[in-house]
Amino acid sequence: MLLIALMMGANHVAARLAFNDGVNVATAVLFRSTVTAAVVLAVVVGYRLPWRTDARQRRALLIVGGLIGAQSLCLYSAVARLPVALALLAFNSYPFWTALWARVVYGERPDRRVLMAMPVLLLGLALALDVSGAASGLGAADHWGRIGAGVAFALTAAASFGLALVIIQHGTAGVDGRVRTAATMALVALMALVGVMAQGGPALPASAVGWWGLVGLTVLYGTAFTIMFTVLPRLGVVGNSAIMNVEPIFALVLAWAVLGQTIAAVQVAGGLIVVAAVMWLGLRRA
Fold first, then answer.
1. Where are the transmembrane segments (predicted)?
2. 28-52 burial code (b ≥16 CB/10 A, e <16)
3. 206 close to 24: Cβ distance less than 8 angstroms
């Protein structure tokens, strides 16, 4: 699980290398999703998993595919605009979006611990994002002028992913997770292809560094998903999936080593608070 978290964090660092070298978001999502869909499809075929779904499940899968497509585009857009670790920390608010959507769409009351953890996570995000602009020395207005769009993309990605999780739980029950992911990644790849064609074709890297980034994000994401499907069912989702929430910490270290990105000590402290809050929510179900 720690290896998966490391590869997911590295995937976003590789994405930033590609973006810095001329690759646009739609092209990155197209490469990543196409290869991942092919890998997961090979797993589905290899295990001879059933594809049969009813009308309700098919509708839910279409909605989930659209939401994951939006999440992918928005998260990579955030990574292109923010330090990688900050983009992932803002995205890590998705457990709270999940609770909100469950309440709004299905009338489920949020768990008391979710409500308890929410102010802690908001405090951590406020510190990590330096909402006052004090750590950056720019002041609030100039600071948010620089990071506002990236934060909006990251939070939109979190909201989309949270809603997708709720619909997966209620609308795709009975569909094997690997079949669901193969279908979802295929839909995301189709959405990205439409976006790429609308922009006149793929925006490819200008140098070898960009190609390493594009290939890296594709291989890392596809490999992480393959390992996840192999390991997580054996370990059990409960009590283990929360370990993956250390992804922003790995991303912070990798972004510093590879991209030279640094954030202030108070922002690091805020990031640790966010990670701790989200991990606590995941581990409480163990």
1. 25-47, 59-78, 84-102, 114-135, 147-167, 179-198, 210-230, 242-259, 265-283
2. bbbbbbbbbbebbbebbeeeeeeee
3. no
Q: Judge contact between 79 and 91, C-beta under 8 A.
A: no
Yes or no: say if 17 and 211 are a contact pair by the CB < 8 Å rule. Answer: no
pTM of the model: 0.90
Sequence-distant (6+) residues with CB within 8 A of 268 are: 128, 252
Question: What confidence score (pLDDT) does residue 243 get?
Answer: 64
What's the CA gap between 278 and 114, in Å, rounded?
9
Q: What is the CA radius of gyration of the chain?
A: 18
Q: Which two tokens stand for residue 273?
A: 């608070």
Q: Which residues of the chain have pLDDT under 50?
A: 236-240, 286
**Cα–Cα distance measured from residue 27 to residue 36, given in angstroms and rounded to the nearest whole number:** 14
> Which tokens in the block code for residue 88?
């992932």
253: buried, middle or exposed (CB in 10 Å: 19+, 13-18, 0-12)? middle
Residue 285: predicted pLDDT: 53
Length of the chain counted residue by residue: 286
136 within 8 A of 270, measured Cβ to Cβ: no
SS3 of residue 238 by DSSP = coil
Tell me the percentage of the chain whose pLDDT exceeds 70.
Answer: 93
Write down the residue that tokens 């750590």 correspond to: 135
Rounded distance, CA 198 to CA 2, Å? 38
Which residues fall within 8 angstroms of residue 116, CB to CB, at 6 or more apart? none
Angstrom distance (rounded) from CA 260 to CA 54? 50
How far is the C-alpha of 176 from the C-alpha of 182, rounded, in Å?
10
Q: Give dist(CA 258, CA 263) in Å, integer.
A: 14
Q: CA-to-CA distance for 189 and 214, rounded, in angstroms?
A: 15
**Is there a contact between 274 and 125 (Cβ–Cβ < 8 Å)?**
yes
In Å, how far from its chain's centre is CA 58? 23
